[in-house]
Design a protein that fits this description.
The protein is built from 20 helices and 13 strands. Strand 7 and strand 8 form a beta hairpin. Among the domains are: 89 residues, Gyrase A, domain 2 (2-Layer Sandwich); 116 residues, Isoleucyl-tRNA Synthetase, Domain 1 (Orthogonal Bundle). It is α/β, with parallel strands linked by helices. The structure holds arginine.
Amino acid sequence: MAPVPSLSATVHQRLADALAAALPEAGDADPLLRRSDRADFQANGMLALAKRLKGNPRELAASVADHIPTSGDADPDPVIRAIKVSGPGFLNITVADSAITSTLALRAADGRLGVPFAERPGTTVIDYSQPNVAKEMHVGHLRSTVIGDAVVKILDHLGETVIRRHHIGDWGTQFGMLIQYLIEHPQELDHASDTAGTTGGTTGDTTEGATAEGEAAMARLNRLYKASRALFDSDEEFKDRARRRVVDLQSGDEETLALWHKIVDESKIYFQGVYAKLDVEIRDEDVVGESAYNDDLRRVCEELEAAGVAVRSEGALCVFFDDVKGPEGKPVPLIVQKSNGGFGYAATDLAAIRDRVGTLKADTLLYVVDARQALHFKMVFETARRAGWLPEGAARQLAFGTVLGKDGKPFKTREGETVRLVDLLDEAVERAATVVTEKAPELTAEEVAERAAQVGIGAVKYADLSNSMARDYVFDLDRMVSLNGDTSVYLQYAYARIQSILRKAGSAVPRPHAELPLSAAERTLGLHLDAFAETLASVAETHEPHKLAAYLYQLATAYTAFYDQCPVLKPGNSAEVTENRLFFCDLTARTLGQGMALLGIRTPERL
Ligand code: ARG
């Protein structure tokens, strides 16, 4: 279906035409239209234009208005009902009720709700959800996963080619210790030596199965990590053997690589368990960790050095920046190769850029990574640009803030340890179960569990996504699962309530009645519904999912006002009024449902 022009786009076009007719010398001046509380829309562009043309803004605005025939004129505009000059030279515009309903009818007739594909879609490589092998996932990985997943879904919905890259930490010196220990204690990662016994009879097919397997895998990895660490710290000879093992790993020794694989695979089982709980789909082919770039690192260094982008300094290969200085004004370089010959995080990221731009042909590179890595990415992007591997402005870090505890400090357990992501998710689901049971005490245990997962996980995701990314936010479960306020639960209830009304009304898809006059609450809801496509376009452009969250919250709020003021299934209503209101209900639910899905949040049919 053809994309549906929004009323704001239509009005904008009408004004631009009227402006050009009234004032040919205005060129293609922008009428600057926006939504307004006073009328439906307000145009402010006449002020700047009058200044430029040295005219009177009110007169100018009036002559524009004169070029739009409204009700009372012969052949009135079907969209604009009234246009009035106000204040110093604004134009207040009211659209016709029938135009609102007819536009919504076009949206409702389209499976995409009239949302167009981007005009010039490109290829975006997005680097998100990058946990580290043999380590637990924590709240930082929550943010990267949830934000990345939403950005992927939104870009993909608008037609962008999205390539996902999970740059997991699967390489480095710590593997020498783990592998050496495994060689000396071959039974260590064996499933048979599990004490937890949680894997018995479970499979990864269900969320619970995947989570249980994942937890068992992490328990084995933790045990391996602790045991090898203890030996590493206490036994000098083991330490030497572990260090030599790093060299074997880097040179591709077969036995060493096989054990490395075993550790990585075990970690992936764990990650998938967390992803299942988090209700996020991460595909194995998109997991391209640090190790994948290993063979390119030497060439990256050679090219940087040959091009003069990097120089040797105290044995290390470094890139310097005029504006990056440490304490006492000493320049802080990006170290691409350490003085002992080892390659680090930066070299890998540079190799990844070459691959993503050169081989994957990305136009845009996004990195959903903690703001505390901002300096790293600034230096890496600038280095790649100097080397000619990255066009200016093509890469962007979607830097996110820190998750804080109620004390306002980075979120830690009472013992001062980082909080395990799974524990946090479990707690959210538990709290949600309480909320669900209170609301619907008649549910079976199974129903409670299913809804609690959708509500609890949705609450965690929404709390994260509804804050602008760069901000720190406080992880407050009580607030997150509250039925009131800007929470996913409030949105999910709005959705479920509409479904219950639609069920009560019967099976037919409600038809709109554009001939009916609309009340104020219907107009507000209708105009907001009409802005869905534009909201998505702007969210995709700026990569800011919180704007979609804000839009959906406003939608639910507008719906609540409509629901209070415009009884839907009232015996006194005419059949047409009832059906038109059901039509508004239905489109609201579909918009809420699609919007929430783009944020990765479920909208259960009943709550
Ligand atoms: N593994 C890193 C961490 O847990 C994040 C990796 C970010 N991505 C990248 N291309 N450097 O902090």
